[in-house]
Design a protein that fits this description.
The protein is mainly alpha-helical. The protein contains eight helices and no strands. The longest helix has 34 residues.
């Protein structure tokens, strides 16, 4: 419970900061990140409320949330990628969405675990491509002063752990539920760290605008 409360507090804080920044500088000043944070916060609050009242019929919403994340971060990275990378990114996201429509039962009542894996691989590809190009193309601005560094690092860190947790999830559910609960608590810690990185990114967005 403590991890959940801390996680929701961090997510709420980051979302409020993003909304305040958007109100002062406009949504485009942070690459529309407030949209992603608002949707994330809304879904998490709704999900935790449903758990509190002992209703567990909301898992399917995370299927649509996963699709939303793929589309959102395609748009996010398209705004900072070069023209050639935008074309490659477009082909990749169309391929992923086509696969989801044809082969993933995202409209079912349960969460489609393979959908989460697809999201993670998509995040990893985008983050590594951005990091490679940022390092390859020398910039006078330090990489740690670039808000996209913190966004990409957060997505990369979260995705790697999510894959580590998701692939053996059903095995642990049947054979070692106690360890699965430990992984769940660690996931909250990973989420907290990711959103902390997003908070840093918002500070970097603000500073880059004020320069």
């Amino acid at each position: 419970m403590l991890f959940q409360i801390l996680y929701l507090t961090v997510l709420f804080t980051v979302t409020v900061k993003s909304i305040v920044l958007a109100g002062k500088k406009g949504l485009s000043s942070q690459n529309y990140f407030a949209v992603f944070l608002l949707v994330s916060l809304g879904l998490e609050l709704y999900g935790h409320y449903k758990i509190y009242i002992r209703e567990f019929d909301f898992a399917y919403l995370f299927n649509y949330y996963s699709i939303f994340m793929i589309i959102f971060f395609y748009i996010y990275y398209s705004r900072i990628f070069s023209r050639q990378l935008r074309i490659v990114s477009f082909v990749l996201v169309i391929a992923i969405l086509t696969y989801i429509l044809l082969f993933v039962k995202f409209y079912g009542g349960d969460y489609a675990n393979e959908l989460g894996i697809l999201v993670c691989f998509y995040f990893i590809i985008n983050a590594l491509v951005w990091l490679y190009n940022r390092i390859k193309n020398f910039d006078a601005v330090k990489i740690t002063d670039d808000p996209h560094f913190w966004v990409s690092s957060g997505l990369l860190f979260w995705s790697i752990f999510f894959i580590f947790r998701s692939i053996p999830m059903y095995f642990f559910k049947d054979n070692d539920p106690a360890f699965l609960q430990v992984l769940k608590n660690i996931q909250y810690g990973v989420n907290i760290l990711m959103y902390t990185m997003f908070y840093i990114a918002l500070n970097k967005f603000r500073k880059s605008i004020e320069l």
